[in-house]
Amino acid sequence: MLAIVPSSSSSQLKLLHPNILPCSIKHSGPMRISKRYWTPRQQVLSKHLSKSNDETTDGKFPTDPATSTTKVPTVYLRGRKLLAKRLPLPAGYTGHLLQKTNTILPVKPKMRVPRHRQDMEDDEEDEEEEEELPAEVKVVEEKGRFEEILVWGHESVPSEDGEDVFVRGLGEWVGWANRIHAFDMPT
């Protein structure tokens, strides 16, 4: 089991901006990231664009780009253009960045109640039953929080209609979490 504890280093948690990239990175561990490599900018795009700046979903140019525009986070990573969709967390949800530690949460010892001789004899009969040991609880430390997730797509904004597996997966996860944590109300 895990227990979440606030960060010991600072009282104010940093506001983070998690990103889901459409690629595989075969590296784990710290890395010095330069603004040279990751500087998303807001780009004005037509709301009707799906695959590029030049086409709409039906293959025609937008009729009035001045009224049908939206700002989309855009970045170039290793020469590839990536466009993002912002997914705010639903009301009542908070996002936290956690770091595992090797610290084990101390367990409070159970108080022993004095027992009578008859109780002790009954216990000898039930020797097959063993006392359950408390589960080991490791501590995870809270390092930051977030209010939205950016899902990036190659040359297009990820869609909510089921095409993008990350957008669909996050939506399904939130719906599933709502169902398993809901209380059944008798009618």
TrEMBL record:
Region (Disordered): 46-68, 113-135
One GO cellular component, as annotated: ribonuclease H2 complex
Sequence intervals crossing the membrane: none
Domain of life, source organism: Eukaryota
GO biological process per UniProt: RNA catabolic process
InterPro entries named among the record's database cross-references: RNase_H2_suC
Alphabetized Pfam families for the sequence: RNase_H2_suC
Biased composition range(s): Acidic residues: 120-134
Protein name: Uncharacterized protein
Protein's organism: Zymoseptoria tritici (strain ST99CH_3D7)
